[in-house]
Amino acid sequence: MTSNWPDLPIGNYLAALASSSPTPGGGSAASLSGALAAALGRMVIAVAQEKEPAADRASLDARLHELQDGFLALAEDDELAFAEVMEALRVPRDDAGRAKRLQAALERAAGVPLRAAEAGVRVLHSLAEAEPHASRSILSDIGVAAHLALAAIQSSLLNVAVNVRSIQDPTVAACLQGQAEELRRAAQAAHADVVGRVDTRLAPKGA
What we know:
Order of helices and strands: HHHHHH
Number of helices: 6
Low-confidence stretches: none
Mean pLDDT: 93
Strand content: under 5%
Shape: elongated
Structural class: mainly alpha
């Protein structure tokens, strides 16, 4: 289990990710991608603030900072949820409470990446607000952040799907799938908006 996420050296995390240990895995990697997207958006705001401080930029930075920290918390939550699933699977099959415990753990394990995908969409919307503040020299960083946010969302939704397929309650499964599909559509639209803005501003004059 990864510990102390905010202070974890990136090299240590990558070494743990590359190991045969079940955690960290794809869920935390997806959340880390979201944290990187939020941090990169904050960098664009910080550069603009140095040139000309503005209250709207400060509030946007605070929002992205909250999302950045939230992704680190979600990375830890993902590992904890996975551990709960594994613990439930280790319960003897003849245990009367095993099925209920496993289903509850799977629902929690699906809920964490769903929250990560939702946070990723919020990052994309924040990047759309940050784009006008980006000078042409760092405009590409908005695009990179948007791609990272989309990767976080798409990766998180994969982790929703892998847990939903084992959830036996059709109503719960359908609800989670519906939320995931709604987030997928919202992410695609928000990503296209941000990247379209960046591409337009970076296009050669007269093109």
